[in-house]
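Ticket #309: bound-state structure for S-adenosylmethionine.
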Amino acid sequence: MAVTVFHMNDDTLKTRHIPVLFDEIIEGLNLAPGKIVVDGTLGGGGHAIGIARKVGKTGLVIGIDRDSAALDRVDKRIEELDEPVNIKTYFANYCDFDAALERAGVDRVDGFLLDLGLSSDQLADRSRGFSFDSDGELDLRFDTTEGTPAYQLLNRWREDKIADIIYKYGEDKLSRRIARAIVERRTCEPIRYARELADICRRCDPTPPWSKKRIDPATRTFQALRIAVNDELGSLETFLTKFMKSLNVGGRVAIISFHSLEDRIVKNAFRAADDLKIITKKPIVATDEEVERNPRSRSAKLRIAEKVR
Ligand SMILES: C[S@@+](CC[C@H](N)C(=O)[O-])C[C@H]1O[C@@H](n2cnc3c(N)ncnc32)[C@H](O)[C@@H]1O
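RESOLUTION: The complex was predicted; output attached.
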């Protein structure tokens, strides 16, 4: 089996990710010196470092990510900080956070943070296929050590399965047309690169380029495939069935989602848990000023709940 090794240089070790709803997370988690918090989606480490500064030397942040490149970046960033922070990093799926707790020698924690989806660093890494204009293979996995790259699945799945995924996870009305075009294209030549799929999606969209519709026609298909390839909803559902037993009374869980299906799963799980008090009756969203500064925050929804008994 051919293995591609990507060497990270100083530039790729710097994060470009701007954390969304940063102040709202720091305030919403009710942090204090000595608290222990799990950041299940470490990404560029922005939230984790902010939390670590609040919990201080006597506290701890257990940082988890499924992407080893993200962990390398955060480890380097922590090393370079002027003031040391107490963050332990683990390569894992956040739904397996209990294994990380065990390795850290921790039984229960005072907070959980999930900031779901993709980071700007992953988008910027053209070899991963997250960005539609890249010449990289259409991989779309957060953890490249397990699962199957998206292009292999696209060349294998039945047309109706592709259409259902694009419709369900991408909420794209053009799902059937795009699935048909994918199947037509792969009968001539298998799809391999991100740019090829983006071109197929764009050719399926009748909206003229001068229309007010601002998002790229490939956006929803890429999002849908990424969610399917990484089983993103499955991880979230598993996490929501188990985090309560590791959360201290008075501890909080904060989840930022970027997709209506994820937000609904979080809302329903919080409502169904007898021992949780919902802190955010309506999800917190970014201010106009934050959206201006960081367009990624536009679709972010933050829900927070507290364990009361
Ligand atoms: C939006 S970024 C988080 C950004 C971070 N809060 C910050 O301040 O820089 C999401 C990160 O979560 C990771 N991720 C997504 N699903 C995951 C999962 N199931 N388990 C662990 N990490 C996951 C991604 O690899 C990505 O690095």
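RESOLUTION NOTES: Residues 68 and 118 are 14 Å apart (CA to CA).
TICKET STATUS: resolved
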